[in-house]
Amino acid sequence: MAYRSIFLILFLIYLFKNPCYSETDTLHQGQELKDWDELISSNKVFSLKLFSIGSMVSLYLGVFYCKNEIRNSQSHSYQTQASDEFSNNEFSNNAVWVANRNNPIPDIYGKLIIDFNGKLSILSGGGTVLDLFSPTRLVARNATVTLLNTGNLVLRELHPNGSVMQDLWQSFDHPTDTLLPGMKLGINLKTGHNWSLTAWRNDELPAKGLFTLDLIGTGQMVVLRQGNIHWISGTWKNSRFENTNLLVSGPDVRLHYVSNETEQSFTYLTRTYDSYPALRMHQDGQLKASSLNLNIFCLPNNDPPGCAEDIFKKSKCRKGNFTDSSIIGSGERCYSYLDEYIYDDSYNFYDCLRICWSNCSCVAFATRRKRVGCKTFSKMVYDPNCTDRADESRPFYTITNHEG
Ligand SMILES: *[C@@H]1O[C@H](CO)[C@@H](O)[C@H](O)[C@H]1NC(C)=O
Ligand SMILES: *[C@@H]1O[C@H](CO)[C@@H](O)[C@H](O)[C@H]1NC(C)=O
Ligand SMILES: *[C@@H]1O[C@H](CO)[C@@H](O)[C@H](O)[C@H]1NC(C)=O
Ligand SMILES: *[C@@H]1O[C@H](CO)[C@@H](O)[C@H](O)[C@H]1NC(C)=O
Ligand SMILES: *[C@@H]1O[C@H](CO)[C@@H](O)[C@H](O)[C@H]1NC(C)=O
Ligand SMILES: *[C@@H]1O[C@H](CO)[C@@H](O)[C@H](O)[C@H]1NC(C)=O
Ligand SMILES: *[C@@H]1O[C@H](CO)[C@@H](O)[C@H](O)[C@H]1NC(C)=O
């Protein structure tokens, strides 16, 4: 615990110091990116840094949108009003790329290095956590890693005179849950490498979650839930995916769809980064976007192609269709929930909602805030003596329209 407190204090010091200024967008061989070091793209839109989530000690390496005051000003003054506005935007606050989503650094001694063979690695106090790029032959290479103005982190091999010989690796080939302007969704037909987005497990766990966004061979966007189709768009036609609200290019956004011998891909470009453009695959199966008009939530009233699962319609014991208002969040105080059934870490909010909705004996479910996994309950007992006792640590969701 003392360990965590120290970390928290250090983090607070960090917040007050606000060092989102950096002289460089490039890490050279033999240098380390550690502690509160950052690479800032030369347009000051993106930063690469180590971060932790909530009260967890584990560190991740990620790319973020820089705050407005860094973007708009070359001076080192700190403007608090801009940061309030900033904190309201989920696309500006969350990492747009996580290098080590499945391999958290277990201590506070994380660092990014390039060794003299051109190997790009994330280390902890105890050794290698993850090699992002390993050269196939061990030859001495002059390499640097640069955070480009697009938010793409690129490992490059240099000629002795400093000019670029070739790109060895880039973060845009390994998306997390977010498609930035210029990133591709689809497949490289030459290498077989595909670009897809996979949601976080939950708000505090960047590890691969349940939902994946792919572009498939027929030119349709597909959201897969553990490999099964959850939602599917129409095909690309007349500059849009049919049966979606994804509109044709406007003055500030351009959509590109490519289907040629080397690749099949979808990408988009924006005129500016002012509105923190991003398309994100959410942990609950929603696609959310800023700058792009594509927000998808799988509800039964979507026309096909669209939501492929009609589980929310089928249940005989629920009145009507599923809507958001069928769930009462945060638990009704003064009820106790009994006859619990526990689901392990491979289940999240969305799974428990489905399970509970389609099982007539289920009256409520609960998720765990810090971890995944959940519980369903088949009995709800009113406690006449209760005084307000909200259990904020474990949100309950009661399903209404229950007749059985
Ligand atoms: C740097 O070296 C490479 C390979 O030797 C050469 O092709 C390139 O033109 C050189 N660039 C400059 C700016 O001298
Ligand atoms: C690597 O490139 C830099 C220029 O960017 C040059 O100064 C340095 O000598 C090179 N190192 C090797 C080992 O070629
Ligand atoms: C992309 O790769 C994943 C895993 O390698 C695979 O399951 C999926 O089918 C691929 N998608 C396409 C469109 O090839
Ligand atoms: C296919 O499209 C990509 C992206 O526009 C382009 O880089 C590539 O050269 C194209 N390939 C062919 C064979 O035209
Ligand atoms: C449920 O959804 C179906 C299909 O969208 C619709 O036909 C039906 O009227 C809805 N029922 C209710 C009670 O809203
Ligand atoms: C429905 O929930 C009850 C209580 O948790 C459980 O005993 C039962 O097995 C569930 N039924 C199905 C079909 O999963
Ligand atoms: C509620 O309070 C009454 C009187 O204080 C007590 O007799 C009763 O056992 C309590 N009921 C429960 C469920 O705790």
TrEMBL record:
Which key words are in the record?
Answer: Glycoprotein, Signal
NADP as UniProt keyword: no
Q: Where is the Bulb-type lectin domain?
A: 24-168
Q: Does the record bear Signal in its keywords?
A: yes
Superkingdom per UniProt: Eukaryota
Signal peptide range: 1-22
What InterPro entries does its record include? Bulb-type_lectin_dom, Bulb-type_lectin_dom_sf
Write down what this protein is called.
Bulb-type lectin domain-containing protein
Q: Which organism is it from?
A: Mikania micrantha
